[in-house]
Specification:
Residues 7-279 form the Polysaccharide biosynthesis protein CapD-like domain. The chain has 333 residues and is of the alpha/beta class. The protein has ten helices and 17 strands. The chain has a single domain (6-166, 201-228, 262-311), classed as NAD(P)-binding Rossmann-like Domain (Rossmann fold). Strand 5 (119-125), helix 6 and strand 6 form a beta-alpha-beta unit. Helix 3 packs across helix 5 (94-114). The two termini are 25 Å apart. Bound molecules: NADP nicotinamide-adenine-dinucleotide phosphate (NAP). NADP nicotinamide-adenine-dinucleotide phosphate is lined by residues 10-17, 37-39, 42, 61-63, 81-85, 100, 104, 123, 125, 165, 167-168, 171-172, 174.
């Protein structure tokens, strides 16, 4: 699907962007792969790492529509990964988070429409489902913008969809590198904010593969949610440091005890497929099919129960301590 095509990824120098680039270059022969982000050092290091002739590096901010529109010229597919994503930073700098995550999303949409891009996938997070912090709320607003953008183009291009998943094992600023650095520095305890805390758990490679697959599946308007396991944070601590005691330090501002990917209130619009869920748009599209029970690959989904919700503590698939160790090891590859 990506052979001889041009792909642009906003936030391409981040954790997702690196794994996506590695995967795309190993499986396909794209015409161009454009990395769009702000920091020249991260771009320089990425250029050194991949040294691929098809790659182009654009310095630019998603807040700058003119620059985005220039960067998207003759592009076929866009992945929108750029975001401000640290929960405390978003709480303390709300307008900055809104400018990047909401205004930036609107700019990506308008630039994609102006350039007649074929398909756009925006990355979302479990924190966008029934959000309690600003990061999640801005990502929910972004999700809504991408879904509704399909209505702005009617039967024409582009098609816009969203991929929503949970904690990526080992991504920048996340719990695994935090625990690892504590352990390496000889900590006498592992701080866990709440005894019962659970999270969805996914590797970067699984996230990338899910996004690549959804470019084939998408009709436009879906929020794609993968079926993935959950973990208990206390089990994560035991897996990473079996001999170091856990200390409960209290829940942080903006932190949930459990994360949610499909809210119960959206059950009427949620369809279950073999390895994923689709949350279909609540609005009716004009000049477009509103049937999301099958997709462009002709996979069939079925309606979920009307009380269904997909939450990390009631997930039927939990990893044991040993499974977490193996999963985290796999994630480091
Ligand atoms: N990591 C997770 O656990 C997780 C889970 C679920 C969903 N997600 C979502 O997945 C996406 C990618 O996450 P990630 O882990 O790869 O993040 P990351 O490692 O922090 O990378 C973020 C990227 O966005 C760029 N960026 C930030 N602000 C920008 C702006 N205003 N304009 C242009 N580029 C900007 C950054 O580069 P510069 O700073 O150089 O611009 C960097 O390339 C995000 O949308 C996030 O919400 C992540």
């Amino acid at each position: 699907m990506f052979n001889d095509k041009s792909v642009l990824i906003t936030g391409g120098t981040g954790s997702f962007g690196h794994k996506y680039t590695e995967t795309l270059l190993s499986r396909y022969k794209p015409k161009r792969l454009i990395i769009y982000s702000r920091d020249e050092l991260k771009q320089f290091e990425m250029q050194q790492r991949f040294n691929a002739p098809c790659m182009r590096f654009f310095i630019g901010d998603v807040r700058d529509k003119e620059r985005l529109t220039r960067a998207m010229q003759d592009v076929d597919f866009v992945i929108h990964a750029a975001a401000m994503k640290q929960v405390p930073a978003a709480e303390y700098n709300p307008t900055e988070c809104i400018k990047t995550n909401i205004d930036g999303a609107e700019n990506v949409i308008n630039s994609a429409i102006d350039n007649g891009i074929e398909k756009v996938i925006a990355l979302s997070t479990d924190k966008a489902a029934n959000p309690i912090n600003l990061y999640g709320a801005t990502k929910l607003a972004s999700d809504k913008l991408f879904v509704a953008a399909n209505n702005m183009v009617g039967a024409n291009k582009p098609r816009f969809s969203v991929v929503r998943y949970g904690n990526v094992v080992g991504s920048r600023g996340s719990v695994v590198p935090y625990f690892r650095s504590l352990i390496e520095n000889g900590t006498d305890h592992i701080p866990v904010t709440h005894q019962d805390m659970t999270r969805f758990w996914i590797t970067l490679q699984q996230g990338v593969d899910f996004v690549l697959k959804n470019f084939e599946r998408m009709l436009g308007g879906e929020i794609f949610v993968p079926k993935i396991p959950s973990i208990r944070i206390t089990d994560l601590a035991k897996a990473m440091a079996p001999d170091i005691p856990i200390k409960i330090v209290g829940i942080r501002p903006g932190e949930k005890l459990h994360e949610m990917m499909c809210p119960g209130d959206m059950a009427f619009h949620t369809f279950e497929f073999k390895d994923h869920f689709v949350i279909a748009p609540a609005i009716k599209f004009f000049q477009r099919s509103n049937d999301f029970t099958s997709n462009a690959l002709n996979e069939k989904g079925k309606s979920v129960d009307e009380i269904f919700e997909y939450v990390s503590n009631s997930n039927p698939h939990f990893l044991s301590v040993d499974e977490i160790s193996a999963f985290n090891e796999e994630a480091r590859k």
